Amino acid sequence: MIKINRRTVVKTSAASVATAFLPASSKAQTTTYEQPGSFTADDLGGKLTPFGAVKAGNADGSIPAWTGENLPLLAGYQAGDPRPLPFPDEKPILVITAANMSQHQDKLSNGQIGFLQKHLDYNIQVYPTHRTAIAPQYVYDYIKKNATNAQTGDGGNVISGAYGGIPFPMPKDGHEVMWNHLLSWQGSSIYFVVDSHLRTHDGGLVLESRSHVWQQYPYYFESGESRFQGFNLMGLILPVAPPYEAGGAILALQTVNQVTTPQEGWIYLSGQRRTRRAPELEYDTPDTVSGGAENWDEVDIFTGKLVQYDCKYLGIKEMYVPYNSNRINQAAAADQLQPNFVNPDLMRWELHRCRVVEMTLKSGSRNVDARRIIYCDEDTGSAIMGEVYDARNTLWKFQHGNPCIYADIPCVQTFQFFCTYDLHAGNYAVASHFDAQTEPHWKPIPELPASFFTPGELAAKAGGF
Hints:
Layout: E1 94-96, H1 110-118, E2 124-126, H2 137-149, E3 151-153, E4 158-160, H3 174-182, E5 189-199, E6 205-216, E7 231-241, E8 249-255, E9 264-269, E10 274-277, E11 309-322, H4 333-336, E12 337-338, E13 341-342, E14 349-361, E15 371-377, E16 383-389, E17 395-400, E18 404-406, E19 411-413, E20 418-422, E21 428-433, E22 443-444, H5 455-464
Antiparallel strand pairs: 1-2, 3-4, 5-6, 5-21, 5-22, 6-7, 7-8, 8-9, 9-10, 11-14, 12-13, 14-15, 15-16, 16-17, 17-20, 18-19, 20-21
């Protein structure tokens, strides 16, 4: 989700924070990656899923084959309600702690290992794997077209020939993997109420923002290719809490051409009764909605422009990642967000194949995130876990989402409940998260007119809400 507010004025630097207590695994562990197989567009729906993942399971069956079946919704479910648990009777088959993590290190990220070393009372509860990634048939049809038509330009920073699905179901390089994340399927027109919280290093719980959000993905309009204007996401955000956030409004537009048509943002300031451009909506500007615990381009693991980074596709790795995490949205925020970390008993981790990208800051670019490792789910294309290294190549932040199965859309919704743990400062932020008190959750709505997402409408919407 796109977020900014009027307090976004000061940059933070990792170099200003003491690092004496960093975990021993700050340096990247030696990892072996499987290299992608050789496939063509004709393999989509055959050897490959419609998203481009290998349809077969792994050798020992711990990752099953993809079937494409949707999960039934419970009787009485209404749009916007918390989604029901997809597998309510299942129990963890494995619990990983600092004491036994060496036995499972080949399926853990460097960030997970560092976090377990720092928090000895943390655990990763692993459940049976379910490959629930699904989309409407029209999305599958567009993905197959993209497989032969989509291409990148300008060093991977621009795409063309893509619409209506992930652009590169068989990605060849790191930029293509990251474009799949930026353009992953989440629905087309959505309304929801969402919170962002900060847990401070001393255990304090701070509500940083509660907002009503309308998000529209013109890139994903069914039969909308002929009227596509290049905007893959249009977002309107109306903060209502805490009091100093209420009364404003935020508009952000993201494009598929990040060079010639960069993303744009506006903010309505209720005190001034004026709408202003918000050019700081990019790169390492601190996102103060998260209390400064994450930067703008760390939202949703990675958001925004790729132009600052070289992106190397390392390969494919079987990893324990959050998945089918519907349970966590049914709890109250105070139960979700424990001191030091998200409640492990509400988390659900599964073994999935991830496409792994190393993002390294280009010479001459300025960003406090000098290097990143991004773990993208092979089944959806979305980034669901990441780690950030500072200028000294020291592990700084561990990030993960909590993907949920939304059978009514249908999709695995990954752009919600993403966590950023600052291993230097000892705090963590949870952004774009739902809980038992917020409503509605991610709710599909009819397409909104383009005029809904214009700077001229911001003041009217803020004042009339």
